[in-house]
Structures are given as structure tokens and as C-alpha cells.
Specification:
The structure holds two protein chains of two kinds.
Chain A lengths: L1 E5 L13 E5 L3 H11 L4 H4 L10 E5 L2 E2 L15 E6 L7
Chain B lengths: L1 H5 L10 H6 L1 H4 L5 H10 L1 E5 L5 H11 L3 E5 L24 H12 L4 E5 L8 H6 L3 E4 L4 H14 L3 E7 L2 E7 L7 H4 L12 H4 L4 H19 L8 E6 L4 E6 L21 H4 L15 E2 L1 H9 L5 E4 L3 H6 L5 E2 L5 H4 L9 E4 L4 H12 L5 E4 L2 H8 L8
Parallel strand pairs in B: 1-2, 1-4, 2-3, 4-5, 9-13, 10-11, 10-12, 12-13
Antiparallel strand pairs in B: 5-6, 6-7, 7-8
Helix pairs in contact in B: 5-6, 5-11
Classes of the chains: A alpha+beta, B alpha/beta.
């Protein structure tokens, strides 16, 4: 049973323009590992050199930030939707 | 802000007969009424940026009868702004955005006092400028100013109505409201320069800032009136392509460096440095990897064999091109085999940012004879080929 990961616009360049990807995994960490294994150039946008999730990328399970759940160990089922929410800066010009 | 919400309007504010007619559709709303309209008149809102988000903000806040609107902007109106910045019109091209903003606001509602700040918001002036307003609407397009606005609002305890856009996607929230989170609670650190594309690089649907800026205006009005449920602790996401919205929970981070339980940041810092942007050094040696449009033109005229690599997107190539081999920057890693490292390669894009990344990438792979066209195809259109369309 796969869980849906929603890909935000700025990162779709690295997912062959897909806005969502279905992947198997028991935890958020497993899903993201599979995601970046499938789309390798995405990795440096999500993880820093030490392998930690970057501070300007937030990951949500449904409407809840994983920082306030069990972080990357947060369990997911096929009923959940995982969202990657990066900071975007557009507005003035 | 919210304190004045429950106690009725300031006593020194009155509505004239003209204003009562003008605001009639507000006055008959039980949630607004005369008291509410007087709160709007007594209120002041600072708009940071008079661009895509600032445009609908300025227009609707002026129409709604906000008493004083401050605008911080130092830009002039450019033709390429008009696709989305509806505050400005064709006749104002080349003139300060503040000028057209003021004229438009006056034309909509002469009762509004407009305060202009013709400057970049900086760590030196931000507190003084923001202090004089009840709330801030952030319509900036860059991370240093975004963190600066956030920190200044937290330090001054001013609510910050946040909006951000990219391509077809927008975000709205209210930060720095009593008990609520701030932008740093959401994103403790900015992305390093170059990792996140800007609207100038990535493009933006012209209507999108209209939608997001209008949502910011609605939130500002609600905060002033003290009605409804503002987006405090909630991040609203809109995808204009699917026209779907989602809402995410935001929490105040007790470890937040500026609004947490033990804040480290008690005064404004250097936000350019914080965002990893180093100012160009005066008299620095010219970039060895750079090549000017005139140099390329001369080489081509002499019949030298140059391999032109276009790293833009196909839709950009369609607008104008130099006959280069098209490999969009994001495809470069898997299509690098199409390039011959023994040839002299000149990479170009729109203005030189993406091709700069391409050159760095290729150099890491061992390409030696690869250079970046300074100013990109835009410089070519400006200096070499006046017939070429610019975008």
C-alpha cells in the first residue's frame, strides 16, 4: 500500500514535473529515502551534507508538521498524504 | 491591535457624510458597522513592496478605508511588471512605483493618507518605519527582507500578514500575532542562495499575486476589525493550476531564535549575511569564467568555432535564441553526454544566473573550456541585436 507524497512547484523540476508521487514506506523517513533514490537530484534540496532534512524544507503528514510528530520516524499509512513545503520568496518583483 | 479590537473605535475618529455613503456596504454588515469602519479609519498598515502582492493589497486596503497606508519601495515601474502589478499602468513605466501607487490610491479613495518610504527596508531603518504602523503586510520577493520584516515585527509585536508566490503556487499566513508563530518558527533558516529559484527565473502566473495579495488584504482587514478567524497558526496553500487549497497547522516554536521562550535575537542582524549573500567586493578581479556578449559576437564574426549551450527552458528558447544547443539546466546532469568537452563552450540563459550554475557544474565534471555569457541573452538583445525580443 503506497502513500502519496505531494511535490511542491519549485521541486517538480526534479520529479519529471510530477505533482505527486506514490511510494511504499512505513515512515516518513523511508518514503523520503525512496523518493530521493528515485529522483536523485532532489536529494540535495531535501537533505544537507550530514543527511539531515534541511531547515527550509518542512514535511507534513496531512496538516501536521513532522517536527511535532515523531519527525522522520512518523508512521504513515496509505490514507495519509505527505507534503513537502519549501520556503518560497516571490512577491514584489 | 487586538486590544483596540474589542473596545470600539478611537474617539477622535469620525466619518463624514461622504464616507458614510462610500462605506455603506461595510456599514450594513453587522460584523463591521460604524464602529468597525471607524477602526479601519483609525488603523495604519505598512506595505513592504508595491509589486505583485502589494498591488491588490494597496488597492483593496485603500478602498476599504484604512486611514493610513505606508509603502516601502525603491523600484521603478518596468514593462515586465505590468503583467501582474495592477497598481501600475503603462504610462508610469520608468517612474517610481511609489508615485503610481500614491496616484492610484488617491484616485480610489482620497480619504486615505499615503506615506511613502522611498528606500530599501534595512536593519537600520526597519524598526523606525514599522513602529509607526499597526500592522505589516509583507509583499517582498527575497529572503533577507522576509526575515528582516519577520524579526522587526516580532521585536515590535506587530502582526505580519505574510504572502508568497511561485509560478502557480501561493502561501498565506499571519505571523507575529499574539500567541501565534512567526516566520522563523516555520523556517528557522533561509535556503542558501541559488538553491531556490526566484520568480524572475521561474516565472509566475500574473493572476496569482492578485489572489494571494487579496487574501492578505482580507486578513489585514479582519485583524483590524477583530472579527472572524485570522490565519494565525495556519498556513494556507493555493495551487492555481488545480485551484485546490490546503491548510497546514503552524505552531510557535519554543526554541525559535526570535519569538521562542529564550530568544537569542534581540535586535536586528545583518540579513544579507544571514542569507549567505556576500556583497560583491569593490575592485574584485573579473570572473575568469565570464565572457561578454561583444567578445562572443567578435569570435562568431571571425568564424571561430564556439559551441553555444542554452540552459533555459524550451518556452524561453521559443521567444528568442542564439541558435544554441538547448539543454535546460535541470536536465543538464543527465544530458551532459551531449556536450564535447574538447570544444570551447559558451553557456547562456536569460540573464546569466542559471548559466553560471551550469558552468560551475560542468567545471566540477572536468570541463575546462566553458564560459558563462555575462548578462545572458538579455544583454545580447540590448547590446548586439536590437531586433531580438526581450522578456
Amino acid at each position: 500500500m503506497a502513500t502519496r507524497i505531494l511535490i511542491p512547484t519549485p521541486l517538480r523540476t526534479y520529479t519529471e514535473r510530477k505533482d505527486s508521487v506514490l511510494l511504499e514506506g512505513n515512515t516518513v523517513g523511508e518514503l523520503l529515502q525512496r523518493l530521493t533514490a528515485t529522483y536523485v537530484p532532489l536529494k540535495r534540496h531535501l537533505y544537507d551534507d550530514t543527511g539531515s532534512l534541511r531547515n527550509f524544507v518542512n514535511v507534513y503528514v496531512n496538516d501536521e508538521d513532522i517536527r511535532y510528530l515523531q519527525k522522520e520516524q512518523t508512521l504513515v499509512t496509505e490514507k495519509d498524504t505527505v507534503s513537502i513545503i519549501p520556503s518560497i520568496a516571490g512577491g514584489r518583483s | 491591535m487586538r486590544e483596540t479590537g474589542g473596545r470600539g473605535a478611537r474617539t477622535d475618529v469620525r466619518l463624514s457624510r461622504e464616507e458614510i455613503r462610500r462605506y455603506g456596504r461595510h456599514l450594513i454588515l453587522p460584523e463591521v458597522g460604524l464602529d468597525g469602519q471607524m477602526k479601519l479609519k483609525a488603523a495604519s498598515v505598512l506595505l513592504v513592496g508595491a509589486g505583485g502582492l502589494g498591488s491588490p493589497l494597496a488597492l483593496y486596503l485603500a478602498a476599504a478605508g484604512i486611514g493610513r497606508i505606508g509603502i516601502v519601495d525603491f523600484d521603478v515601474v518596468d514593462e515586465s511588471n505590468l503583467q501582474r502589478q495592477i497598481l501600475h499602468s503603462t504610462e508610469y513605466i520608468g517612474r517610481p512605483k511609489l508615485e503610481s501607487a500614491k496616484d492610484r490610491i488617491r484616485a480610489i479613495n482620497p480619504n486615505v493618507e499615503v506615506e511613502q518610504f522611498s528606500t530599501r527596508l534595512t536593519s537600520e531603518n526597519a524598526l523606525d518605519i514599522i513602529r509607526a504602523f499597526d500592522l505589516v503586510a509583507d509583499g517582498t520577493d527575497n529572503f533577507p527582507t522576509r526575515y528582516l520584516v519577520n524579526d522587526a515585527c516580532v521585536l515590535l509585536k506587530k502582526p505580519n500578514v505574510y504572502g508568497s508566490i511561485f509560478r502557480f503556487e501561493g502561501q498565506v499566513s499571519v505571523f507575529s500575532a499574539p500567541g501565534g508563530p512567526c516566520y522563523r518558527c516555520l523556517y528557522a533558516d533561509p535556503p542558501p542562495p541559488g538553491l531556490v529559484p526566484s520568480c524572475a527565473e521561474g516565472g509566475v502566473l500574473g493572476v496569482l499575486p492578485g489572489i494571494i495579495g487579496t487574501m492578505q488584504a482580507a486578513e489585514a482587514v479582519k485583524l483590524i476589525l477583530g472579527i472572524g478567524e485570522p490565519l494565525i497558526g495556519r498556513l494556507l496553500l493555493l495551487d492555481a493550476l488545480t485551484m485546490k487549497t490546503r491548510e497546514l497547522k503552524l505552531r510557535r516554536d519554543p526554541a525559535c531564535k526570535v519569538c521562542g521562550d529564550h530568544p537569542e535575537i534581540k535586535e536586528l542582524i545583518d540579513y544579507e549575511m544571514f542569507c549567505g549573500i556576500t556583497p560583491p567586493e569593490a575592485g574584485a578581479a573579473p570572473d575568469a569564467d565570464a565572457i561578454s556578449v561583444t567578445e562572443v559576437k567578435e569570435k562568431l564574426d571571425r568564424g571561430e568555432s564556439l559551441f553555444l549551450l542554452d540552459v533555459r527552458e524550451p518556452q524561453e528558447y521559443q521567444i528568442a535564441n542564439l541558435g544554441g544547443h538547448l539543454i535546460p539546466l535541470s536536465d543538464l546532469p543527465r544530458r551532459v553526454h551531449e556536450l564535447d568537452s574538447s570544444r570551447e563552450i559558451v553557456a547562456y540563459c536569460h540573464t546569466g544566473v542559471r548559466s553560471g550554475k551550469a558552468v560551475q557544474f560542468l567545471k566540477q565534471l572536468g570541463f575546462r573550456k566553458v564560459r558563462n555569457l555575462t548578462g545572458g541573452i538579455d544583454a545580447w538583445a540590448e547590446e548586439i541585436d536590437a531586433e531580438m525580443p526581450r522578456y
